[in-house]
Amino acid sequence: MIAVHKLRVEYKDNPLGLDVRYPRISWQLDADERDVMQQAYQLQAAMDQNFGSTVWDSGRVESGQSLHIELKELQLQPKQRYYYRIRVWDQQNRPTEWSDTAWWETGLLSPEDWVAEWITAPLACLDVQAEQAPLLRRSFHVDRQVTRARMYVTSLGLYEVELNGTRVGEDYLTPGWTSYSTRLQFQTYDITGQLTVGDNAVGAWLGNGWYKGNLAWDNKKHVFGDRTALLMQIHLIYADGVEQIIGTDQGWTVSPGPLLMSEIYHGETYDARLEQTGFSRAEYDDQSWMPAEILPYTKDILLAQENIPVKAIEELSPIALLRTPAGETVLDMGQNMVGWMRFSMEGQAGQEFQLRHFEVLDQEGNVYTDNLRAAKQTVTYIAKGGGRESFQPRFTFQGFRYVQLIGFPENLSLQDFAGVVLHSDMEPTGSFTCSNPLLNQLQHNILWGQKGNFVDVPTDCPQRDERLGWTGDAQMFIRTSAYLMNVAPFFSKWLKDLAADQLDNGGVPFVIPHVLDENSHSSAAWGDAAVICPWTIYQCYGDKRILEQQYSSMQGWVEYIRRQGTDEFLWNTGFHFGDWLGLDAKPDSYIGATNRDYIATAFYAYSVELMGKTAAVLGRTEDEQYYSQLHVRIKQAFNREFITPAGRISVATQTACVLALMFGLVEGKAEERTVAKLIELLEESKYHLTTGFVGTPYLNLVLAGAGHYDAAYKLLLQTDYPSWLYQVTRGATTIWEHWDGIKEDGSFWSKDMNSFNHYAYGAIGDFLYRCVAGIEQVEEYPGYKQFLIQPHPGGGLTSAAAGLESMYGEIRSEWTIDSGKIELVTVVPPNTSATVLLPDAVLAGVLENGQELQAVRGIHSAEQLELSVKITLGSGEYRFGYALRK
């Protein structure tokens, strides 16, 4: 049986408040048989679940496409729910039943749809210098049964909303962080079930957040504005079709709240004695509150939620209560996590309870906070007294494994504390495990590095006074991140901010959103995120629209580079981070030894190559020709400048060799000599890396591409410094910023720049999935429409397994070696096909589930290659077994 399932609109399951003018539909097929391909589809959209008022009917469309079907001619109306369903025909022309009905609902589609006004706390209500967060409220009357109610809300700063005493929605840190001067998200909530006939009330909290609070390391404040504000519309639809709108206006009232201080970096101070209990209920007496003030502010920048919102994803229990040598009381969560602590206590009115969050204990086992720099990461709770009290923060998050408890009684119970893990609620898509426990812990650390740093923007680190959307880190890790989770909406939103913050001359800021000074832009490998990230999302998800969306930005960046160098085909000017944190750096320098002009020109060539490919995908023939020719010229200039006529690379570092090979900048004898030089350098370092941010993501991939899998495994499996597994042996639960963040003697690399949750080096995950397990995307078939299963056993591993929930469904590669025999389990989702390359196999000896290959349904061909057997196959699960070639 074949069925259509997992219907999605813009990657989302039944989304509320969508403002995409031409939404795209994707689906998967479920089949209990092999070799299923879609031949045609029919898609219907309607205003009712019974499809009595169809507004879109594609009819039968002869196409195997099941991703991103754009409803081009559909004229969407605001605040309207659209239902849709799909059926398909397979390659034998057998139709499926109609899928279950799914839906999406539009939100407010234009600034004119907003009739509410921005409101803020009067300056007389809150001391101008005070950090006390305001509360806002309004009562309203519902005179009869409501059939549908929606809340559209956003803020300057962060907000949390209550309706009739109950929190609205499950999102945190709303409205999220965007380039606030040009783009501000609003959220949509279904509040139908929270209303009552009669009197109702809505209340809101406002916090500084990224808009008004501290950002970066120079104690900057008010980067985007100096007053928090709220904008909200509640739309009530009655059974007779009448609509009532309750919006923010001067009818709202404002009061200081119990949140005395709230900062992303510093934490929160909450005085429970100042609680306005029941302030979001209709019966609350607000006569002492002040009228809200209208704040003149634009609505032209408003847009519906684009990214997957931040949510409380899971909870961790502390594993131990420690008493340090210095006498400090410390909770150990057992995991470097990002979020906050929820805790309960009992105290006298006015008694203070304080939690200081930090990542590691020092050499003696005491509290260590130096690496947080100016970030306080402290939550202070002032009790109201009279019984048991509970608290968790609202408008902050901390990066921590340990929590120092100050002011708590000695007879603590671990059950009174829970770590709430926050991150963007991305769909988990990847899994990896193998026979080596250290590699399994490395995979765990990579995943938790992504969890902790994908908090609405791809931050570099989640604990110190930084937490910024560094472009270099994002482009280095994006491919690995797309294995672990569905990051397409996450990066689509962030890349729109990149385009919004891009300089008029095409330069790209170091961090997005751009909050640093005017000179902080356009380093090679950092600014290249403008090109690399859209291309990667296109490749991993088959998302052509992201290339269309970002094309001007991508082109602007490449043209910026072209205008920089003294030679049009070399990039040899300007500031560059180089091979940041490379271990071959000079003393007291963060920049590795690889020549920065070399790195800049290599990335110039790579971005131009991707621009040519992007132009080809979008049918921009003239641009394709232009960038293809430009790439040839850059490559020629690179070889003239950095490669001798005899093919010797002039910059003799690991990173230099890696970039030349990864970006295809050397050929023939030069390529051979560059590979040989890389191996020579590895031998000199006893197979330890000296690469930094630029070279590390590609190092093992380059070795694999050159056939040096033994060298790649040697690097991967080193356990002494510097290596990925050194961190694991030191007890790391996330990826570190420095290979020796904690030295072998327990001392630290530095105080000022030593994050223990810094995902960039987690890019090795790409190698784990792509080469160890063998799941490889094919460039000509984006989104895994066709793909490779090509495992490369080695390093003494006896098994490895990886799964990837692609847009088409689950892909799986799982191999086991025992007594000279190998078994490979492969899963190919319906409507896709795969090529399997069985390593060290002889065709005559390969069986699928005990059968000879020619007798197996779904296997289209099988042939002997020099070192492997190549099999092409359709969808289904296959189990190949054979004896390894001697």
UniProtKB/TrEMBL annotation:
The keyword Ligase does not apply. Keywords: Hydrolase. Residues 429-772 form the Alpha-L-rhamnosidase six-hairpin glycosidase domain. It is an enzyme of class 3 (hydrolase). Its EC number is 3.2.1.40. Residues 774-842 form the Alpha-L-rhamnosidase C-terminal domain. The keyword Phosphoprotein does not apply. It catalyses: Hydrolysis of terminal non-reducing alpha-L-rhamnose residues in alpha-L-rhamnosides. This is alpha-L-rhamnosidase. Residues 323-423 form the Alpha-L-rhamnosidase concanavalin-like domain. Signal peptide: none annotated. Residues 145-313 form the Bacterial alpha-L-rhamnosidase N-terminal domain.
